[in-house]
Here is the input.
Amino acid sequence: MKNRGLALKLTVLILTSVTLIFTGIFAYNYVISRRIIIQNIEKNAYNMANATVNRIDMVLRSIEKVPGNVASFMESAPKVSTEITDLVRMIVTNNPEIYGATIAYEENGLSEGKPTLAPYCYKYRNELRLTYLNYDYIYWDWYQIPKELDRPAWTEPYYGESAGDIVTSTYSVPIYRSVDGNRKFMGVITADVSLEWLQKIVGSIKIAETGYGFILSKNGTFVTHPDPKLVMNETIFSVAEDRKDESMRELGRKMIGGKTGFTPFRSLVTGKQCWMVYAPLATNGWSLAVLFPQTELMADITRLNGTVLFLGITGFLIILGVIVWIAGTITRPIRALSRATEHVAVGNLNIELPAIASGDEVGRLTASFAAMKTSLQQYIQKLTETTAAKERIESELKIAHDIQMGMLPKTFPPFPERAEFDIYAAITPAKEVGGDLYDLFLMDENHLCFAIGDVSGKGVPAALFMAITRTLIKTKAVQVLSPGTVLTRVNEDLALENPSMMFVTLFLGILDIRSGEMEYCNAGHNSPYLLSKGKNPRPLEPTGGLILGVEKDFKYRSKTIRLEKGETLFLYTDGVTEAANAGEEMFSEAGLENRLSDLTDRPVEGIVNGVMEAVDAFVKGAPQADDITMMALKFYGETSNRIRDTIERKPKS
Here is the structure.
């Protein structure tokens, strides 16, 4: 579009705006209308579900009252078998919704020495029959569940053979008697109920053309459903497994868990997307679900939106014709200016623009183009000068980096002729130049001085402060002073003229390479770790020193430890532990200690490189925020025939 005419752009812009406005209004109308309809559907769905649930619960409660009342009567009635038989027959005769009942006692439940009695009366083809249960009913659910739960209970639905293979459920009530002042379980009284009436109630639910209802038992079994293949043969979980539908499985858990809800659901009969409301039956814990087909209920709003869309397209075409005519009239004088400024567009800033012939928008636009041309010429000249200056600065920073790195010891091993110890150090600046430092040198034949530090800030100021600090340390240390005295004097010099309030953390140690005795002083730096074979890394005790360059009169103290043969001292700056990955998680002291535990037996170069590899693997390419410096010192002691635990290596940088 950028190479098209202004008339076309104006037309497209206006039409796009009109289209967006119309689309926004259309979408808003559709969304709000749909939301209102869905809210009404949800409200009506809950009302229908609650009404159906209450209707079913009312029937089930009336059935529950019969065995409940009889159980209360039985707890006070005498144990006479003929009365029990008559009572069972009376239950079935006087309650048309109950097609079978029994009173089943525990063994010797009637009285000591008498056999277990369980008369069962049921209806068969409009005929009343009486029999006795001749199987071990005490192991059946209808007997075990109320006994164990100590309360009435409904069984899962099943096909009742005596009722002609219809879906049936049993309500069982435990019977108790007071024996010697104790409440003793005697048996249960049951009422078998055909669920044909339940299937009729749920089957009468019709929503639009394809909506329907169904019921799940407490185990998720389909008790009623328009698809007879599912009834008593499948559970909602088996259907979900067959269809690999995890959302249906989760819905089944909510339904058997007694939850109420309104959720999208795909019909198992038509495969169409529906809304489904579900609610529990309070009496037996089953769940009723009613499906509302979305496409059928949204048909009216779909037709309305089609009409609105047709009217919108018609209006769009009318507006298109009007805009094309207006745009052509407005842009005709601008096209003349466009032809004159094409040379400016390709970089020819010396081209002459057309003369300003009027004071209208086109005239002001021509004047603006002339001013822009002049500004561009000046800007290009300044940009050329700035680029040259930037290149000079980058070159100087590169030279500063080389100078700074040249100041630090970089040949390792630094003293290949000395077998009493081995030392290795490495530094990785976060910028071209950095503020971390390390140094190592022999004060005499028997004493090694080594230091590591971190200057506040980064860049050139930190690098200059680092150079001053390193020079002061070397100057003071050659006077064979203790580390505490060295740092006290260095601190005095750094704090004397320090208007920018820069400071440095520093660890200084002096090792007697004959005995392994090491005197050290820590000026606010990270405590080094002592690595011993078979032990976890241990940080050195702090000496209580402040950072250097802050308090001029502070006195630093030293401490002394003895390095055993084979022990390693690992020194580092906070750039190691504060290295962060993309999630802003830090490598941390814990991460460093874990890595050092695996590197205890390695040579000093292997320890430093191993920690660096762990840091690189942790940050995963995230930008480096701080300088990283490490040093490892391993003590071997005076042993003329010693075999070193590292491969003999030539000095290298």
About this structure: The two ends are 59 Å apart (CA to CA). DSSP finds 14 helices and 22 strands in the chain. The mean pLDDT is 85. Residues 33 and 414 are 82 Å apart (CA to CA).
